[in-house]
Fold this protein.
Amino acid sequence: MENTITINDALEIAKAEGMGAADSAIGGYGIEYVDFKGRVLAYVNLGDTYAETICIEDDLPFIGSWGDWLESAEAEYCEDTDTIRCGYCGEFTPIDCEDWRDVVCEFCGNKLG
Ligand SMILES: [Zn+2]
């Protein structure tokens, strides 16, 4: 039988019965977790980073992708801490000059611009 449940139906199921029930209803591959600087997202794994799925953060279920969540969590972190993510080593290094292109990563020493 074809799975005819919509993502909105799955969201309602997640709110009423929890993430495990939403995973079963939508035919996901289980609940996965992303942890970023103290924030934790749980989501129904649909096999694609940017697939619209059921996510939950701080007990609030919503529709989104974990890839988008992580990008926005990183952007918020950079804004809040005045840092930039190094494309070489992945660490967050302080923006300590006028132009981010002049920033040298304090972890690996590469110039980011
Ligand atoms: Zn670096």
Notes: Strands lie at 31-36, 39-44, 53-57, 60-64, 83-85, 92-94. Residues 7-80 form one domain. DSSP finds three helices and six strands in the chain. The chain has a mean pLDDT of 94.
